[in-house]
Amino acid sequence: MTEFRIRTEQKRQMIDLTPRVAQIVAGAGMADGLCHVFVTHATAAVVINENDDPNVCVDTLDALDKLIPAGVWRHDRVDGNAASHIQAAILGPGETIPVSQGRLVLGTWQAIMLVELDGPRERRIVVTVR
């Protein structure tokens, strides 16, 4: 298990983790297996999506805001981030990617993305390769 931290810069953003995760997989010295990427926070998520066109990330965040709007939930009375918790729960905290010949098996347009929903914050990412 390897972990690293990322400091997000915006309240809501998507950050490509693929290069960092690929480096960890390469360093693991394993030919075939699985790589699991997990974020240890309740207002962030890990997804696999396109990162070639930055509009995909913006569209994803916009869609989440339309589906789960801010400011209308009971938890907002506590700290104003209920929508971030709900969105993160729907997206999920992790993804599992196959590894073949020591490399992540991702499609041409796929990237491992951290979804920041309540930043800016420091986020801890845990990567397990087996």
In terms of topology, how is this protein built?
Blueprint (H helix, E strand, L loop, with lengths): L1 E6 L5 E4 L1 H11 L4 E7 L4 E6 L4 H14 L8 H4 L2 H10 L2 E7 L2 E2 L6 E6 L5 E8 L1
Antiparallel strand pairs: 1-8, 2-7, 3-5, 3-8, 4-7, 5-6
Short précis:
This protein is of the alpha+beta class and 130 residues long. The protein contains four helices and eight strands, in the order E-E-H-E-E-H-H-H-E-E-E-E.
How does this structure look, described?
This protein is α+β, with helices and mostly antiparallel strands and 130 residues long. The protein has helices spanning 18-28, 54-67, 76-79, 82-91; strands at 2-7, 13-16, 33-39, 44-49, 94-100, 103-104, 111-116, 122-129. The protein has a five-stranded antiparallel sheet with strand order 1-8-3-5-6, covered by helices on one side. The protein has a three-stranded antiparallel sheet with strand order 2-7-4, sandwiched between helices. The longest helix is centred in the middle third of the chain and has 14 residues, at 54-67. The N and C termini lie close together (9 Å).
Based on DSSP secondary structure assignment, what is the total number of beta strands?
8
Task: Write the H/E string, N to C.
Answer: EEHEEHHHEEEE
The structural class is alpha+beta
The number of helices is: 4
Which stretches are low in confidence, meaning pLDDT under 50 for 5 or more residues running?
none
Q: Calculate Rg over CA atoms.
A: 15 Å
Give the N-to-C terminal Cα separation: 9 Å
Q: Residue-averaged pLDDT, rounded?
A: 96
Widest sheet: strand order? 1-8-3-5-6
Strand content: 35-45%
Percent helix among the residues? 25-40%
> Which overall shape is indicated by the principal axes computed on the Cα atoms?
elongated
User: Main sheet?
Assistant: 5 strands, antiparallel
